[in-house]
Amino acid sequence: MAGRLGAPKALFLDLLSGAISPPRPRAPTVAFNPAFAGAYDFSRQPDFGVLMRQFLDGLPEDGLIMCHPGFVDETLLGLDPLTTQREHEHAFLAGERFPELLAANKVTLS
Predict the structure, then answer these.
(1) Where are the alpha helices (DSSP H) in the chain?
(2) How far apart (Å, rounded) are the C-alpha atoms in residues 11 and 94?
(3) Within the chain, how many helices (H) and strands (E) appear?
(4) H/E stretch holding 64
(5) 15 — alpha (psi -120 to 50), left (phi > 0) or beta?
(6) Is 63:33 a contact under the CB 8 Å cutoff?
(7) pTM reported for the whole predicted model
(8) Nearest CA to 70 among 55, 89, 47, 52?
(9) What is the pLDDT along the chain (110 residues), one digit of tens a residue?
(10) Contact assessment for residue 60 and residue 35, using Cβ atoms and an 8 Å cutoff
């Protein structure tokens, strides 16, 4: 959690999801994700592979990582200021390093 202090958006999402407060009992029939990762400062255009490694670090089983990979076309350029990061995310997720990172962390996708 201490690493989140430098990422206000991630800290805010943690607050909203209750990650900072002790877990509250939930109805056993309601499925939920025990943790959430994936928020980062898009303005810095960081290496998404490094970020993904950080997202996976300490993520419990059934944790959720949010990302928005995509291909950028003229329409999207006019609608979305985060086009560069979408392409970086897609390149990492479609590349060879992602499956290696998942295997190294004993993570499967579902």
Answers:
(1) 8-17, 48-56, 74-79, 83-94, 97-104
(2) 28
(3) 5, 2
(4) strand 64-65
(5) alpha
(6) yes
(7) 0.70
(8) 89
(9) 555 556 777 777 776 666 555 566 666 677 778 888 999 887 788 899 999 999 999 889 889 999 989 888 889 888 887 788 889 999 999 999 999 999 999 998 87
(10) yes
